[in-house]
Design a protein that fits this description.
By secondary structure, the protein is an alpha/beta fold. Among the domains are: about 45-260, MetI-like (MetI-like fold), CATH 1.10.3720; about 275-345, no CATH class; about 530-695 and about 750-795, Periplasmic binding protein-like II (D-Maltodextrin-Binding Protein, domain 2). The chain has 32 helices and 16 strands. The strands form three sheets. Strands 4, 5, 6, 9, 10, 11, 12, 13, 14, 15 and 16 form an eleven-stranded mixed beta sheet that branches. Strands 1-2-3 form a three-stranded antiparallel beta sheet. A two-stranded antiparallel sheet has the order 7-8. A hairpin with a 2-residue loop joins β1 and β2 (about 300-305). α3 (about 55-85) packs antiparallel against α9, α24 (about 580-595) packs across α25 and α25 packs parallel to α32 (about 785-795). The longest helix is centred in the middle third of the chain and has 44 residues, at about 330-370. The protein is elongated and about 125 Å long. About 35% of the residues are buried.
């Protein structure tokens, strides 16, 4: 075993390094939307890749930032290294210590520091701040790469240059820079790679400008085209590295060969092998150990293998001739080998002639350049490389300008809209959209300090927070009688067209106006719903013991959120959506219903604000948050519990990987689409009777938007029936438009979509009180307890 690991160590290391890459490349040819489950061979991911305009925009940003930051960092870093090489040791060490701080410092600290610095100076966040940030962390990499090479310069070369009358600038150009050129190239390569790969610093300093890393991070669900894009990048890098290394190796070997030929010491392996074989055949030919006989007049000489000649008699010659007649095959082989050596000799002489001619031609060209065509003395190789780089940079810059000159800026969740919808709107109104993505509401909120958007799609609780801070343009007003009047630029009737349950839910959502008063129509004064849905409890029935072990009826009529705690005690495989509000919702709704805080009046109703479908169940004190935390603790600490976000779709689609799940209804539909066969009798979907989290993501308009007319047109376009059907069908989340809900429900098997697709559909009835109305949960920003919940949530994740 020890010998096996000793001999296979390198192979094992390479296997660990490259297996994930090979799996990624394999799944780039996977059909369907799954990035984890293999469906069938397909090139669909590569076809989809070239339809993703936002991705290619992020690629252009990445390359532009990498080119500029690398170019500037190489200049600054190289001259800084030259300066440090001439300073005193104590000054150099102190400067290098300060320079190396960004290398050892945590990226998150550097990112936040740069963000605060740019905010302090009032910079407008975008590609400018992104480039400055990348330059700042690239310079140290160039310095530590170039400085050791500068120290290795032979001082005799510099002294000789000065003795010959060269100026410092000429010495720098002709002696120093050519010597340290490999280090400069290495530093540039490292800086480019670090810039191309950076995420954290780009995330905090890029504003609404996304590079590849931040774009992929913000996607709500990773799609196969990301695998295709990654595969192309991997192949391009592999081809570039292999080609360059092959070129360098071949050039080095060719140079060595030509030098040996010119010196007359070239011995190719084939020539040496041929000579040895020929000697062997000579020795076999006769006992005289000869190669051949030379005649000169009447004297005959025999050439021995040691290079000496011996005069032989006529009798000896006769014996040799007889020996030759007795070995015709050997003589044929000797003849072939001698011909081969002759050809090699001719080839070597030909190479010598070419080297000589090339040298003479080079001297002649050099003479012409010096005497007649002096412009040919210019560094044409450097000029050509510069032209290529400038052309590439100009092309990228033009593409960036083209993609970043826009009429409307939209911020939405990643993978929440199809490119066709965006293209349809742009074609209809002949405008261009700058489409940015975010991964959660808190990220959007943080970006608002550095970025301005026209239209945003935050969740309900974030809409309430932004409205209370006077950041949103009110799209409706409420008169003294409580009637709502929408802006005239909205060309549909929200009160009639939006699902009635959703409209009432938004109406009852507690929202504070900027003046501190409570909005009479809740979220409806500030937003139009984009998607909505709820949280469902899913029981895997593949394992028939799950229902029995958890005490659940076959129809799920007695399901409670306490199923999660029961499953944790039994060591079941639990999969949970990791959103803080969803996790605490399960505990709060269960504890409220079970009268944990003595609220139940005995009638099945709660003596607190909210306990019907149109009100809320929420935390009202630190004690409630603590108790909910204690309820969740054993569930989270269960070794078989998984907290997942968007990848919950792929996890659930594998029916043998879980027992109980808590997830969005839209994510469950996405899992069904990945594995349609797994619905039939293999899992049970229930909405516990004590209530669930019914959420909505809403379109809002920034108060400071200069393009409000176009923003309303965008909202109107999104709310068109066909647009809603297309969006809801593709992403699985419920449309707010009632006619779209009806159409989408009819497009798919009713036993799947009608029950799962419609939020709160099939809510089980309280077995103790059939008249009980289930509640729903909402966010806490208007309650004042959200920071405490966030702290408790962080401690739970630290488990």
């Amino acid at each position: 075993m020890k010998s096996f690991f000793k001999n296979s160590y390198l192979a094992i290391i390479f296997l660990l390094l490259y297996t994930p890459i090979l799996v990624l490349m394999l799944f780039s040819f996977n059909g369907g939307d799954s990035v984890r489950n293999w469906n069938y061979w397909s090139l669909q991911a590569y076809r989809d890749l070239f339809q993703q305009n936002e991705l290619w925009e992020s690629v252009s940003v990445t390359l532009i930032v990498a080119f500029i930051s690398t170019f500037v960092a190489v200049i600054i870093g190289t001259f800084a290294a030259l300066g440090l090489s001439k300073t005193k040791k104590i000054t150099r060490n102190l400067t290098l210590g300060i320079t190396n701080i960004p290398l050892v410092n945590a990226d998150i600290v550097t990112a936040v520091s740069l963000m605060l610095l740019f905010m302090a100076f009032g910079f407008s966040f975008g590609i400018g701040t992104l480039i400055l940030a990348h330059i700042s962390f690239n310079i140290p990499y160039v310095i530590i790469t170039v400085l050791p090479k500068i120290r290795s310069i032979n001082m005799a070369q510099l002294e000789a240059s000065q003795d010959l009358g060269a100026t410092p600038w000429y010495t720098l150009r002709k002696v120093v820079l050519p010597t340290i050129k490999p280090a400069i190239i290495a530093g540039a390569a490292i800086a480019f790679a670090m810039s191309f790969d950076d995420f954290l610093i780009s995330y905090f300093t890029g504003g609404n400008t996304s590079n590849v890393s931040t774009f992929i991070y913000s996607l709500k669900r990773i799609k196969p085209y990301i695998n295709a894009f990654s595969t192309i990048i991997i192949l391009l890098i592999a081809i570039l590295i292999i080609s360059w290394n092959t070129y360098v190796l071949c050039k080095k070997q060719l140079k060595q060969r030509n030098e040996n030929i010119a010196k007359g010491i070239y011995h190719d392996k084939k020539i040496i092998k041929t000579e040895k074989l020929l000697t062997k055949y000579y020795l076999q030919l006769n006992s005289f150990n000869f190669k051949k006989v030379k005649s000169k007049g009447s004297k005959r000489k025999l050439l021995h293998s040691d290079g000496n000649f011996e005069i032989v008699t006529a009798e000896d010659i006769i014996k040799i001739q007889e020996n030759i007649k007795n070995h015709p095959k050997l003589i044929t082989q000797i003849s072939k080998l001698e011909a081969k050596l002759e050809m090699e000799s001719i080839w070597i002489q030909d190479i010598k002639n070419k080297i000589k001619k090339k040298k003479e031609l080079k001297e002649e060209r050099s003479k012409l350049r010096r005497e007649k065509y002096r412009f040919l003395l210019w560094p044409w190789k450097l000029i050509l490389i510069t032209i290529i780089l400038l052309s590439s940079f100009i092309s990228l810059g033009a593409f960036y300008i083209y993609t970043n000159v826009y009429d409307l800026s939209v911020a939405n969740w990643g993978e929440y809209i199809s490119p066709q919808v965006l293209k349809g709107f742009q074609n209809k109104y002949q405008v261009k959209i700058k489409y940015s993505t975010f991964d959660d509401n808190e990220s959007l909120y943080a970006k608002l300090y550095t970025t301005r958007y026209d239209v945003m799609v935050p969740s309900d609780y974030m809409v309430a927070k932004l409205a209370s801070e006077d950041r949103l343009f009110p799209i409706a007003i409420t008169d003294d009688a409580g009637n709502i009047k929408y802006d005239s630029r909205i060309d549909f009737n929200p009160q009639k067209d939006i699902n009635s349950d959703l409209y009432q839910l938004m109406e009852k959502y507690q929202v504070e106006n900027p003046d501190g008063t409570v909005s009479k129509n809740g979220l409806n004064n500030y937003s139009i719903p984009y998607f909505w849905g709820d949280i469902v409890l899913v029981i895997n029935t593949t394992n028939g013991n799950n229902l029995t072990d958890l005490g659940i009826n076959a129809d799920g009529s007695n399901a409670q959120w306490s199923i999660l705690t029961d499953a944790a005690k039994l060591g079941k495989r639990i999969v949970l959506n990791d959103d803080m509000h969803n996790l605490f919702m399960t505990a709060l709704t269960d504890l409220h219903y079970k009268n944990q805080w003595k609220e139940n009046t005995g009638s099945g109703q709660f003596n607190q604000v909210g306990n019907t479908f149109h009100d809320n169940i929420n935390a009202h004190s630190p004690t409630e948050i603590k108790d909910a935390n204690d309820w969740l603790l054993p569930v989270i600490n269960n070794k078989k519990t998984k907290l997942l976000n968007d990848d919950i779709v792929d996890e659930i689609s594998k029916v043998d990987k879980w027992d109980v799940a808590m997830m969005y209804n839209g994510d469950l539909l996405a899992a069904i689409n990945e594995n349609p066969d797994f619905y039939n009798g293999k899992y049970l979907v229930v909405r516990p009777y004590m209530g669930t989290n019914i959420w909505n993501d809403d379109m809002v308009i920034s108060k400071n938007s200069p393009h409000k007319d176009l923003a309303f047109k965008f909202i109107n376009y999104i709310m068109e029936k066909q647009t809603q059907v297309d969006l809801s069908s593709e992403f699985g989340y419920t449309s707010p438009l009632q006619v779209a809900i009806n159409d989408v429900s009819n497009l798919y098997p009713p036993e799947i979509w009608k029950h799962v697709y419609n939020p709160n559909d099939g809510q089980v009835v309280d077995p103790l009180d059939r008249n009980h109305s289930p509640g729903f949960f909402n966010g806490l920003y208007t309650r004042g307890f959200d920071p405490q919940m966030q702290t408790a949530y962080n401690r739970l994740l630290a488990r």
